[in-house]
């Protein structure tokens, strides 16, 4: 893990953690650093290879993200992705400019079979394009290795300088053989041997936690979801006897979930304390409709409850959080802000804790699940669907009220029950109470009630997703049950939007 590293330089792209995950899936440790890192720092790390991420800017714009020119001259293999490819071209004397016709989404590409990145893979193949700029003239010593209908230089190579670039995104599922392209770069061009695995990560993580925490107490908010449960198991193994888990019932949980959380952790070797704070959260959310404001309010309340409980314990200690990679990337750590997460976006600076422990911060959801199984957690807990920290507050559009929460809980229970019983292939599914009210008719009377949206997606990484094509009879049954069993909802719609352009959650 320590001797063999692929360094990922971040230029503001949304997929930097996904690139890191793909590298780790290939069996090599990856580490993300800002693009401002110096050549001396890179040389000290001695990475086997470097990947330049994508980014939302234009490389020719004054002030656009860049890196030190010396990094290109270290003799370390570099792969530029999208913006990263354009930056290599720009820094080496080529020309980059606005596209005559931008490309977005899966696009057919013709690949040069003589290029080590692409040899052996079928051509043409689909690749995910997402760009408004492109390479128009290559630097001296470079040659094109892929093209699309509207992008004649969709990839390039300069083997003598150990520089390669692809305009498309090999890290996403929509690119055919994308994982294979990255594997070729890691092993064929960088000469890696592999060996990174979650067992090794677990050993290193336990050592890191012990070194950070020492003999101090740790306070963890335990929701019963995958992330906080794995975090609790990890901390309990690293620092046994020092962990207190606080279950904050913020009144925003799914139907029956508070009871299930108490039952699931009752028999474990944890100091579990349950705090009923539902009224407190709802009071603070009264009249609030803006999604970011709701998330920040919930984050502040979580932090304050933890601080109050810590004072009751008499020892400040550390605050632990189940923050994972998708939380970090979507909260805008070096990237464009998509949405704030309660555990990375709304914490006040004066918590009173010694520090924050985030042992899952560099893991994706599938890695967290594998880690949970290694720690001995039951499969039914580890494989639970993701549930946002702000709970149902971000599945109610507009103001959050008790009446809306009651409606959504009942409707969401029906959605989950029916989809689970159907056996359909889906990774996450839930209900959203929209702020839309529409005219309907029930019996012989006019209604003016809420519209409920059903969200069901397929995804391997939760960074991208496609909507699940549920059978019509299943959707009809869900709609009939909700409108028939829950007064206050008279219309049900199905969300058929993928990510991107949408997020999985509505807020």
Structural summary, described in words:
- 46% of the residues are buried.
- Helix content is 33%, strand content 24%.
- It has a nine-stranded mixed β-sheet, with helices on both faces. A five-stranded parallel β-sheet has the order 12-11-10-13-14, sandwiched between helices. Strands 15, 16, 17 and 18 form a four-stranded mixed β-sheet that branches.
- The longest helix has 23 residues, at 291-313.
- Helix 5 crosses helix 6 and helix 6 packs across helix 12 (365-374).
- The model is unreliable at 332-349 (pLDDT under 50).
- It is an alpha/beta fold and 507 residues long.
- It has 15 helices and 18 strands.
- The protein is globular.
Helix fraction by DSSP (H/I, runs of at least 4): 25-40%
* Strand ordering within the main sheet: 2-1-3-4-9-8-7-5-6
Shape: globular
Number of strands: 18
Strand content: 15-25%
Major beta sheet summary: 9 strands, mixed
**What's the end-to-end separation, in Å?**
37 Å
Structural class comes to alpha/beta
Per DSSP, the total helix count is: 15
Radius of gyration: 25 Å
- Name the poorly predicted regions: 332-349
Q: What number is the mean pLDDT? A: 88
């Amino acid at each position: 893990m320590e001797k063999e590293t692929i360094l990922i330089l971040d230029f503001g792209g949304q997929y930097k953690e996904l690139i890191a995950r793909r590298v780790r899936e290939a069996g090599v440790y990856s580490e993300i650093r800002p693009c401002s890192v110096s050549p001396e720092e890179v040389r000290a790390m001695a990475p086997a290879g470097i990947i330049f991420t994508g980014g939302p800017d234009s490389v020719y714009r004054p002030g656009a993200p860049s890196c030190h020119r010396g990094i290109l001259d270290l003799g370390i293999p570099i792969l530029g992705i999208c913006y990263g490819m354009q930056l290599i071209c720009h820094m080496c004397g080529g020309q980059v400019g606005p596209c005559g016709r931008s490309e977005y989404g899966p696009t057919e590409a013709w690949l040069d079979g003589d290029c080590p990145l692409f040899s052996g893979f079928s051509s043409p193949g689909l690749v995910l394009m997402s760009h408004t700029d492109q390479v128009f003239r290559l630097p001296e010593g470079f040659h094109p290795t892929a093209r699309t209908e509207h992008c004649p230089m969709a990839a390039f190579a300069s083997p003598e300088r150990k520089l390669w670039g692809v305009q498309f995104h090999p890290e996403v599922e929509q690119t055919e053989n994308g994982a294979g392209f990255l594997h070729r770069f890691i092993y064929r061009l960088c000469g890696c041997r592999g060996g990174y695995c979650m067992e090794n990560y677990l050993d290193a993580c336990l050592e890191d936690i012990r070194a950070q925490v020492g003999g101090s107490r740790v306070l963890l908010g335990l929701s019963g979801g995958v992330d906080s449960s794995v975090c609790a198991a990890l901390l309990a193994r690293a620092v046994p006897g020092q962990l207190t888990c606080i279950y904050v019932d913020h009144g925003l949980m799914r139907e029956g979930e508070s009871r299930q959380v108490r039952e699931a952790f009752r028999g474990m070797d944890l100091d579990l304390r349950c705090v009923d704070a539902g009224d407190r959260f709802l009071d603070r959310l009264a009249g609030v409709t803006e999604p970011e404001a709701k998330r920040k309010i919930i984050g502040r309340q979580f932090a304050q409850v933890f601080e109050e409980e810590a004072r009751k314990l008499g020892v400040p200690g550390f605050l632990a959080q189940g923050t994972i990679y998708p939380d970090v990337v979507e909260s805008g750590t070096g990237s464009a802000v998509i949405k704030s997460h309660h555990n990375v976006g709304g914490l006040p600076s004066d918590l009173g804790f010694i520090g924050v422990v985030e042992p899952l911060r560099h893991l994706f959801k599938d890695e967290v699940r594998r880690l949970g199984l290694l720690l001995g957690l039951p499969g039914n807990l580890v494989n639970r669907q993701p549930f946002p920290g702000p709970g149902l507050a971000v599945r109610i559009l507009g103001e959050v009220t008790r009446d809306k929460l009651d409606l959504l809980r009942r409707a969401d229970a029906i959605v989950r029950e029916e989809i689970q019983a159907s056996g359909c292939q889906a990774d996450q599914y839930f209900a959203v109470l929209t702020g839309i009210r529409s005219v309907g008719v029930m019996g012989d009377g006019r209604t003016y009630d809420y519209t409920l949206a059903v969200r069901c997606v397929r995804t391997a990484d939760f960074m991208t997703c496609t909507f699940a094509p549920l059978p019509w009879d299943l959707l009809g049954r869900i709609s009939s049950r909700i409108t028939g069993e829950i007064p206050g909802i008279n219309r049900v719609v199905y969300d058929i939007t993928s990510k991107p352009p949408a997020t999985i959650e509505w807020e």
